[in-house]
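Listing S7. Sequence submitted for prediction.
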Amino acid sequence: MKINIIKILELNIHEHHLEIIYGADGFKFSTKIFYHDLSFSLLINNYSRSTIDQIAAHIALFEGMKLCSLFPKYYDISVIANQLGKTVLEIFSKIYKGVFAQHLYENNVTNYSGPEIISPGVSFGYSEPTVLSGDNQTILAGCGGGKDSIVAMKIMQEAKINFASMQYSHSVYGKADMQHNLISGVLKHATPIRNHLISIYDDFVDYPFLELYFPSNSGITVPETPVSIFESLFLMLDWGYNYLSLAHEKSANTGNLFWDEVGEPVNHQWGKGYEAETELNKFIQENLLSNFTYFSILQPIYDFRIFKNLAKYPEVLPKIHSCNIQKPWCKKCSKCAYVWLGLMATFNPDSVNSIFQVNMFDDDDLVPIFRQMLGLSEHTPFECIGEIDESRLAMKKCLEKGLSGKALDIFVEEVLSDYSINWHELEKKYDHVYSTEHAIPDWIFSKIQERL
């Protein structure tokens, strides 16, 4: 089976949520985005219907990118085309290329660069950026409940920078209440001046559609980070926030492998990286909100240093969660294995064991994953994890603590035996705070630099 056209069939703005109906030839899917403390009628009164329609159209466009997992020939956006400027085609192409590189690689598709975007009978509009009301120096900070979120908030808290939190749930990760409750447990250890909730219900990713109709397809790819940035813009408007900060680290800029057949890198985390950050910030400033700034507050540091910073707050250890399979931890995936490795390297192992209650180094199912992390396989795991040398450094720290297991035995035999590795220089690299290649505003960076 092949899909010829994916299409936005409807975009409805209700009082507290957006509803988007998509088509994929004869199939229909819906995405609903709920804002727990936002009134769209008030937002329209405070700004304009056209401003709200424009932002909603961008959300619909990029939420629909997930249907590109079906390799359609066309993407019909007639329903929203007059709310978009033609410049959106360029940023759509860039995001598709970066985010979907892994999907193309996994499906061995070398001759597809995304669907042709069409709008039969409807012309593109003109995108004129709106000015956010006021000059609110409070930072809207994304919080997913993981180690990065709490470290970022702790840094802002200690620097006496006001921030509000934005947490969102997605149906692909389980029940919304369960996700929000887990994140709320993390937020109890931070001091946001207010907390905003977004809940997303998506039957395309939640239903067994692909496995039934496209069993040979590797899975659904969602441009989760880029689309969440567009979804945050309504909160920026509603509260007058000028700054949006996510907690993406320097490690996200490194790809999993270089795909020789197409001559391009493949990076599972591209949507979190510095390139995507700068492209999205520029596009939104020029087309949607002129006095908006998006940045990652952790971009100057690697994951290795984030784990070290996290160890300053042992009280948060039982509350953080990062698993994308079964929250808080499935203990069987590459994300769980990587976070556990970093925690064991930096925390008291007994504290980590009290939560995980398993030695992942001795799990036969995880041995191939640890080999990937150590650079002993074709590529690193397709997950949001650090670089190869960061995993190696963490394993060395675990070994020095007297920990043991099959994965550590492999590390000793195949990595530690390489005497050409300069461990001192590696630690110096990954424990450094970099003052360039980040988009943090100067007034913020000057306050947080010493705390990073």
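Caption to Listing S7: primary sequence and predicted structure tokens for the chain studied. The first strand starts at residue 5 and ends at 13. The chain has two domains: 5-296, 314-430.
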